[in-house]
Structure prediction request, 283 residues.
Amino acid sequence: MSPLATAPLTLSCAGRPVARYDPRPDVGHRLSPRPCLHPVTTLGGVPVTEFAPADHRHHLGVSVAVPDVAGFNFWGGRTYVRDQGPTELDNHGEQRHIEFKLCDPDGFVEDLEWTAGGCLVLRERRTVATTRLAPDAWALDLTFSLTNPGAEEISIGSPATNGRPGAAYGGFFWRAPKEAAPPAVLTAAAEGESAVHGRTADWLAMAGDGWTLVFAGATAETRRDPWFVRTGEYPGVGSSLASRARLRIGAGETAVRRVVTVVADGRLDRARAAALVRKAVTA
Prediction:
């Protein structure tokens, strides 16, 4: 494929298509356009992502989404304003695909630019790869490196750092399918949304009707980010780049995060979830 191609890619694992990556999804500016993975499926063909659902139109499958980068909204929807609440602002940014540096059936390396207000805010190098773990499980390995191209420090925030407790979303985000019953969610030591949300854990599993997702930070720095978890309002899991304080990136500096997600058929118990994560992170 040409480095400048922008048609959606089909990612395969063990010869089976498991994900579609769209570098330029056709969504409105208010949704903060950004490349995303959707649909993503288990090896058995069960879908495990949702795109622009009615409850949150700006949830785009699997993406890197940040609600506050130097005051610009790269998450979509309303912006949380301190002492004012969620507010409609004309501050939405866009993640623009520049080129694929490498593109294979099982993954790619992509360069992007985060732009807003006519300015280049961040440069990103994104690496995505698939790995087969078992006949019923595979792993999606996603690394994003955010570089400040400017001459001044830039900072990343969240609704939590802007005054909304418990809302430290922003970073890697996976929107799962909404089903008749909320999904189960657990870590090695806790279970339920209230017990795992906003806390760090080596891995976190979400299980629905015929599927399980197991998320893990694959670097020490990524593991220090608390998990953002929703099950009751909607099913979603993400990382928290700015949980208690803004993440500051100096001029020319880069912030890197790597999240590996096990995608499995059926419902995994703790022991198997942990074993598959260990295999995925060291693969």
Observations:
- The helical segments are 193-196, 220-223, 270-282.
- DSSP finds three helices and 20 strands in the chain.
- The CA atoms of residues 171 and 241 lie 6 Å apart.
- The chain has a mean pLDDT of 96.
